[in-house]
Design brief:
This protein is an alpha+beta fold. The chain has one domain. The strands form two sheets. A three-stranded antiparallel sheet has the order 1-4-5, covered by helices on one side.
Length: 77
């Protein structure tokens, strides 16, 4: 797929942006791409953020930009 490299680059930019923003606040503990063992297998989310005794798992998705799917939605109405 010819857009894969660009989607990975964009994904990494977004992950790094969020991580850096959160890391500037000492109330947040940010863990990047850690492995989490679960009964169904190993998960590797982009970010795990700990804030006020809560854990937030963030996994970033960058979708392929294709205007064709928008046309299908508009004509399906």
């Amino acid at each position: 797929m010819y857009t894969k490299t660009e989607r990975i680059r964009r994904h990494n930019e977004i992950r790094d942006f969020i991580s850096k923003k959160l890391a500037t606040n000492p109330q947040y503990q940010v863990i990047e791409e850690t492995s989490i063992e679960t009964p169904s297998g190993t998960l590797k989310p982009d970010l795990v953020v700990i804030h006020r005794e809560r854990v937030h798992v963030i996994d970033i998705t960058v979708r392929h930009e294709n205007i064709g799917y928008l046309r299908r939605v508009i004509t399906a109405k």
